[in-house]
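User: Predict the complex with BJW.
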Amino acid sequence: MVSAAIAAFRAALGEATRVMVLSGAGVSAESGVPTFRGAGGLWRRWSATDLATPEAWARDPGLVWEFYDYRRRRMADVQPNPAHRALAAFEERWTAAGHQLALVTQNIDGLHELAGSRNVTRLHGSIWHVRCLRCGAVTPNRDVPITAAYEGAGSPEPDAPSRRFGPEDLPRCACSGVLRPHVVWFGEPLGAEDLEGAVRAAERCDVLLVVGTSAVVYPAAGLIPLARRSGAVVAEINLEPTPATRDVDHHFCGPAGAVVPELLDDLPKRTT
Ligand code: BJW
Ligand code: ZN
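Assistant: Here is the predicted structure with BJW placed in the model:
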């Protein structure tokens, strides 16, 4: 049975031309990618967010690479789930009908792209790219382990033996500079073009669909009130309320893999 809220949201989409989707870690949870906050968000005795900082890198780049190496290993074989696929299929139908769709993701896992989404802005970078600290080159990199020294490292167990990794163990660019993950850590600026594009999309969209984010990390979280102030109908899909919930038009409580297809499948309706 289609609830009144779902019917109202689908009616809003029926009137829309520009749709924006803002996604977070929750959209990939059903693919087996751990979220940052809440249950399962810990790695050894550090939380993911403690290691995703320039300070952690300055203190111990070998440990930070061990953390990312572990996550790359976990993400290497994961597959898009029904939420990723429904968003990609919706984009195809929506743009074929002459409308616009902007998918702005905080995720670094690449699963939206793998599902077939095209107009994707990655606000927090990509775990499958590395950046040289000397020459600045950004290159795709799917090496697992990241260097031979990391073979068998990276257990998330709290009492796993902690190996020390030195400068000789770190991945290097052709220019011999040290490579870091091409992701955005706390206190670092987001890509200016990416952020400007996301702000523009939020200001212009008729409908914003917020999927699987705790809505606590800025500037991404600020896109939600921005879209609302700019006149968009805003819907949120999450397992639980977030700080954004009180300011959205619709809150759909449930797993993204079930709710996103229910909201988007077979839209837009054919008019001929
Ligand atoms: C499901 C589900 C299912 C589960 N179905 N749902 C304004 C106010 C206050 C602070 C700031 C501010 N502006 C800036 C700041 C500081 C800071 C910040 O926001 N701090 C707050 C935490 C307080 N922001 C920054 O530092 C940003 N940089 C910046 O602002 O720079 C300014 C600057 C300018 C010029 C010079 C220098 C600086 C950068 C933020 C970077 C965030 N990076 C990370 C790590 C990326 C790399 C990595 O992966 O390792 O990005 S942190 C982490 O959080 C990651 C995520 O993208 C991000 C958001 O997390 P997300 O996606 O919301 O995941 P969770 O786990 O939090 O939530 C999952 C949700 O899904 C939950 O709600 C579940 O219920 C739900 N869920 N299963 C549906 N099946
Ligand atoms: Zn280099």
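The CA atoms of residues 42 and 85 lie 28 Å apart.
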